[in-house]
Amino acid sequence: MGTGIVSILLHNLPYNGDWLYYLSIIVFVLNIILFSTACIISILRYTLYPEIFMLMIKHPVQSMFIGTFPMGLATIINMVVLVCVPAWGEWTRYFAWGLWIFDAVVSVMTALSLPFLLMAHGNERPLSSMTAVWLLPIVSCIVAASSGAIVAGVLPNEQYALWTVIVSYALWGIGLPLAMMVMVIYLLRLTLHKLPPKAVIVSVFLPLGPLAQGGYGAMKLGQCARDIFPQTHTLEESSGATFYTLGFLVALILWSSGLVWLFFASASIAYSRSFPFNIGWWGFTFPLGVFATSTVQMGTELPSRFFNILGTILSVFVVVLWIIVSVGTLKGAISGKLFYAPCLGDLRVAEEDRDAGKAA
């Protein structure tokens, strides 16, 4: 997700150049390699050790990260549309559409099933144990909605494009209201039980994701509605323009709300001062990255030099942050101390109990 959003930011920078375009392609290829490698490793892991899968799916924290799969794939789909469609032509349009359909189905399954499993399995959990990772499976629908708008913009068949937009609005409606509910609970948790431990303090940036991505999606879907509705005679003649205008209004409100969470998150980091590097530092990149994309898109729609400059500054900051976290991850991967699966602790407990039972 973090690498994918960096490739998109480099491609869409308001003040761009040819060298940034080629750099975005390099990061895009790197993202495909990382995504494919992670998929292969995960398939092998749960094929060779199937008992781990059930432990993972029932874990209240680790299971939430399944939502990163469709979101990571969505960044690849977006770059296929932005880079491959202009370069390789017609077949890539439908290839991106097929990938998006798969991504949308997985996003809905993830957003609905994982919160329900959280309700149905395990013991009662105190409010203080809640973290912002609850948002991850839900945000996948919002990301899929934004990606659907990008895909619909290049589909040559008007009816296919129309249905893609309608489904994307439904995905947006599934994800954003549910994410807002979780954010209210998370704000209550922060208020009553103070900031999370330093090891997971980066998670306070995660609420920025659904707000920024929701705003970006509203603008892109409004664009598509403005262009596609008149062509397909959907609703009234002025409906597309209305959707477009309302989309920008919603985006502006969500972007402003994102500023609140950006302040809370930045103040939390400043208050914590020093905190250890861990894999959770990747929680910096995607939320800040989608906030930057939303800012850049607002600058495009208005148009506005303020939003263009601010979007560029945020984008460059995210790229620098991505480099820092990538170097830290590479060092941690080489040392073997970075990766940790919380669910394996439950497996050890189960094995100890089984051994104790045999001994008795």
Automatic annotation (TrEMBL):
Chief location bin: membrane
InterPro entries: SLAC1/Mae1/Ssu1/TehA (IPR004695), Sulfite_efflux_TDT (IPR051629), Voltage-dep_anion_channel_sf (IPR038665)
One Pfam family in the UniProt entry: SLAC1
Membrane topology classification: Multi-pass membrane protein
Compartmental location: Cell membrane
Gene Ontology CC terms, in alphabetical order: plasma membrane
Domain of life the protein comes from: Eukaryota
UniProt keyword Cell membrane, yes or no: yes
A GO MF term: sulfite transmembrane transporter activity
TM region(s), chain numbering: 20-44, 65-88, 94-120, 132-155, 161-188, 200-221, 241-267, 279-300, 306-330
Assigned keywords, A-Z: Cell membrane, Membrane, Transmembrane, Transmembrane helix, Transport
Family as reported in the entry's similarity comment: Belongs to the tellurite-resistance/dicarboxylate transporter (TDT) family.
PANTHER family for the chain: PTHR31686, SULFITE EFFLUX PUMP SSU1
Name recorded for this polypeptide: C4-dicarboxylate transporter/malic acid transport protein
Organism: Penicillium atrosanguineum
